[in-house]
């Protein structure tokens, strides 16, 4: 059964939530107490299907996942989340015999793994580091939203000019490609820089590269 440490959702969203998935009830209970004592919101799940059925992983948090579980393993759950485009940071809990599996999981995108038995302070530090990473990633998502808002201000012609400019083409080359005068391209380029709030061509290129659609 899903358990929480009693935080209201507003606090959990702000602090980030630790989503623990482990088939060992004793381990779930111990981890819940540890994270709650550290002032972190925590939810525990007995299996991967239980997590998938009852948890919104779009929330800010970290997934602490046991590698070896009956039914659906931690690695199989990771594959499901990757297929669904879920970007929550994953830390695997692993026994000595399953370390190679955890290493394989990191190659698929997991950010860390911790061997059992572990020091509580070490696990807590790694989880807090993962929470900070998730915070940074979400901040980048907000930045992408702002980038898209600025991009939407451009006219179709300004967007064409921007595409050519960030490709490194001069105004003369852009004018020839678009069948426009050099002066017209200069005007469009100035408007692009203003609307995109780019202080220089380098700024514009960095923004475009950082937020290129994948």
Polypeptide structure, described:
The protein has 214 residues and is an alpha/beta fold. The chain has two domains: 3-143, 3-Layer(aba) Sandwich (Rossmann fold), CATH 3.40.50; 153-210, Winged helix-like DNA-binding domain superfamily/Winged helix DNA-binding domain (Arc Repressor Mutant, subunit A). The chain is 57% helix and 13% strand. It has ten helices and six strands, in the order E-H-E-H-E-H-E-H-E-H-E-H-H-H-H-H. It has helices spanning 9-15, 25-37, 48-54, 74-84, 99-107, 120-151, 156-166, 171-178, 182-196, 201-210, and strands at residues 3-4, 17-21, 41-45, 61-66, 90-94, 112-115. It has a six-stranded mixed beta sheet with strand order 1-3-2-4-5-6, with helices on both faces. Strand 2, helix 2 and strand 3 form a beta-alpha-beta unit. The protein is elongated.
Which features characterize this protein?
single chain, 214 residues, alpha/beta, Rossmann fold, Arc Repressor Mutant, subunit A, 2 domains, six-stranded mixed β-sheet, 10 helices, disordered N terminus
Order of helices and strands: EHEHEHEHEHEHHHHH
- How many E-type strands? 6
CATH class of the largest domain: Alpha Beta
Strand order of the largest sheet: 1-3-2-4-5-6
Total of domains: 2
* Uncertain stretches: 1-13
Mean pLDDT: 84
The gist of it:
This protein is α/β, with parallel strands linked by helices. It contains ten helices and six strands.
Outline the secondary-structure elements:
Layout: E1 3-4, H1 9-15, E2 17-21, H2 25-37, E3 41-45, H3 48-54, E4 61-66, H4 74-84, E5 90-94, H5 99-107, E6 112-115, H6 120-151, H7 156-166, H8 171-178, H9 182-196, H10 201-210
Parallel strand pairs: 2-3, 2-4, 4-5, 5-6
Antiparallel strand pairs: 1-3
Helix pairs in contact: 7-9, 8-9
């Amino acid at each position: 059964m899903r358990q929480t440490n009693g935080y209201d959702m507003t606090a959990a969203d702000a602090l980030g939530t630790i989503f623990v998935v482990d088939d060992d009830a004793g381990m779930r209970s111990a981890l819940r107490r540890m994270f709650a004592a550290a002032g972190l919101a925590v939810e525990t799940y007995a299996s991967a299907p239980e997590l998938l059925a009852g948890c919104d992983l779009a929330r800010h948090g970290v997934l602490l996942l046991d590698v070896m579980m009956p039914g659906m393993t931690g690695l199989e759950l990771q594959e499901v989340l990757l297929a669904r485009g879920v970007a929550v940071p994953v830390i695997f809990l692993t026994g000595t015999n399953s370390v190679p599996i955890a290493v394989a999981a990191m190659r698929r995108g997991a950010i860390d793994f911790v061997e059992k038995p572990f020091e509580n302070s070490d696990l807590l530090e790694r989880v807090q580091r993962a929470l900070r990473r998730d915070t940074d990633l979400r901040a980048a998502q907000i930045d992408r939203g702002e980038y898209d808002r600025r991009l939407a201000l451009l006219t179709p012609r300004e967007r064409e000019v921007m595409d050519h400019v960030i490709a490194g083409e001069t105004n003369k080359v852009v004018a020839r490609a678009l069948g426009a005068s050099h002066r017209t391209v200069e005007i469009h380029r100035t408007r692009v820089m203003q609307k995109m709030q780019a202080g220089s061509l380098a700024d514009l290129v960095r923004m475009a590269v950082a937020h290129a659609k994948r």
